[in-house]
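ok so I'm stuck.
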Amino acid sequence: MEFSDIFGKKAIQYLRELPLRSCYQLGLHGYLRLVEALNTLVEEVTETIQRIVQENPQAQLLTTIPGISYYSAFLIVAEIGEIRRFPSAKRLCSYAGLVPSVHSSGGITRHGSITKQGSKWLRWILIELSPHFLKGSDRLH
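replied:
not stuck anymore, here's the structure
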């Protein structure tokens, strides 16, 4: 039997009905209760994040960009803080560690990979979102 979500309702029901020896069934039911408890906690955290984003105008604005969901908007706003503290987009990119490293010696300047300085979580989410930006909007491409 195939399931799109191994922890979905159909998959859990299938696992509950598996004909197993009682010692294995006891262990499996314990794991299934744990999965249900974790799913409940994930739902609660998701609802909390959605509520926080709906109360924050900056986060709401971010969710209008294709590919940015509640979680992504929440993380970006939390990591950037007050946007006015960055006088330019270049400074924000530098804070995120998304600018190329520069090595100069003897009149020769070489640009390397990104610096990876600053907020690793902001850098991570922006890199993860970049394919969605490219797919979602020709303007952002």
